[in-house]
Design brief:
single chain, about 325 residues, mainly alpha, 14 helices
């Protein structure tokens, strides 16, 4: 029921946008896409995907799950493609974790690695979003000091909770398991700065893609005005969607209208961004196709014929020939 509710919510958001603005902004976005925007999306996509895969390998190895960078890059491309073409927005991540877990015979550890690396990326995105919205003018700038204070209070609360020594029971075991995963997968050694760096590069790459999409759709506002809108829209992209559609269009329509740029331009920008993201993920489709090819599958090993059976058959043949 929850999965259906998320899909229905995303579809309802998209339906409201179409009802209020019509199909015109969507047609404008499709018509605005050009080869330059698609080339930029593909180039930025290479950087962001490699950074995501690097982050995944760092966390996975910290949790004791072996993962090479080339395999991680291929699997991440496939994951992004599935996330952008299937409802929910997380199917690719689940598939990535399960497939990797089967390869290393540790599905639980592989799924935990995927969950923690995605969580780390989203936390870095939230922090960068707060910094940008505090520094640059936006429709929500007046509320940002309160939001920043709430985040600091939450971080202090988590730190104090970590110092509490719980008793026995299931919750104590769960807390200890979470603390161990965070320590080993994210904080130990040089993992923390590497995870933060990789996540920051991914966020900046997505923001750059959004700015290119806005310029392609016809936005002429300066970067200092567009960047906060990009970060606000990117927060909505984390929400469940229908193959990437729904919350993204609703958020961009609202933030562009609130910034005085027009909801139509916001939706057109979201459409251009969606097409650019899909094109950037197309190597993932090639990874899926390669996995389905018979030549990519291991050839079954045929057992040699039983020597006694061969001898009996040969003897029978000799009798018939005589």
């Amino acid at each position: 029921m929850w999965a259906w509710a998320r899909a229905v919510g995303a579809a309802a958001t998209l339906a409201v946008v179409v009802w209020r603005l019509g199909a015109g902004p969507f047609r404008d976005g499709v018509r605005a896409v050009d080869s330059g925007a698609l080339a930029a999306a593909a180039a930025i996509g290479v950087v962001t995907t490699i950074c995501c895969a690097w982050r995944w390998t760092i966390v996975a190895r910290g949790l004791g799950v072996d993962l090479s960078l080339p395999a991680a890059v291929a699997a991440y491309y496939r994951s992004v493609f599935l996330n952008l073409t299937l409802p929910g927005g997380v199917v690719g991540d689940v598939h990535r974790g399960v497939s990797h877990g089967r390869d290393v015979r540790d599905v639980g550890g592989a799924l935990r690695a995927v969950a923690w690396e995605r969580t780390a990326g989203q936390l870095v995105q939230v922090v960068l979003t707060v910094i940008v919205l505090l520094a640059l003018p936006s429709p929500v700038q007046s509320s940002m000091p309160l939001v920043a204070g709430a985040l600091v209070a939450a971080a202090i609360g988590v730190a104090l909770l970590d110092r509490v020594r719980p008793g026995g029971g299931r919750w104590a075991r769960l807390r200890n398991a979470v603390a161990r995963d965070v320590r080993d997968g994210l904080l130990a050694g040089r993992r923390f700065p590497a995870v933060v760096l990789a996540s920051a590069l991914v966020v900046l790459g997505h923001a750059a893609t959004f700015l290119v999409a806005a310029r392609t759709a016809g936005a002429t506002a300066p970067v200092s005005r567009m960047l906060p809108l990009a970060f606000l829209a990117m927060l909505a992209m984390v929400l469940p969607s229908v193959a990437g559609w729904g919350p993204r269009e609703g958020a961009t329509a609202w933030v562009f209208a609130a910034a005085g740029l027009g909801a139509d331009l916001g939706v057109a920008t979201a459409v251009v961004y969606g097409i650019m993201a899909l094109v950037a993920s197309l190597p993932g489709a090639l990874v899926l196709l390669w996995a389905w090819l018979p030549s990519a599958r291991p050839t079954a090993q045929l057992e040699p014929p039983h020597p006694v059976r061969v001898a009996v058959v040969a003897q029978q043949d000799g009798v018939r020939d005589g």
